[in-house]
Design brief:
167 residues, single chain, globular, 6 helices, mainly alpha
Length: 167
Amino acid sequence: SGMPSFSEDLPPGGAEQITSYLMSMTDEQIPMRYAVAAVPKPEPKFSSAAERGKHVYQKYGCTGCHGLEAKQGRTNFNATGPGQEDPATDMMKGEEPTLRKTVGNFTRDELRAKIQNGVPASGVAKFNPNGPTPPLYMPPWKEKIKGQELEDLISYLLSIAEKDESF
């Protein structure tokens, strides 16, 4: 399945909250044991744009594909990934980009455009050109992440970019 495992990323009670949400999408009465009664907490205060950007990264679920703190991309069948050699057998090694390794190659404007416009499924690099289209792709976020949140997210991503010291 193209669905990544979120078991490491869910906070305590996260599975129950997801269950409550999914059960709310029916006409049936939700059992009380699944009701989420807590009032949302106010957004915390941050001392820098990069800290606020890390919060935005977590708030909008970027960890779902790019991993905690952008350290490891999730498995994405037949996408290009590390350690692939044989197109017939290594399609399982495909993954979403590890942002720490890739965002340093973009300017602020390029990152802004990539986040706003996303990357369609047809734009994900296939490891095996004759294989299936990778199931995970980046949707456009222009209607959800915008304004100061977008700028803070870009600041965070640029702050964690691995520096190329080969020069």
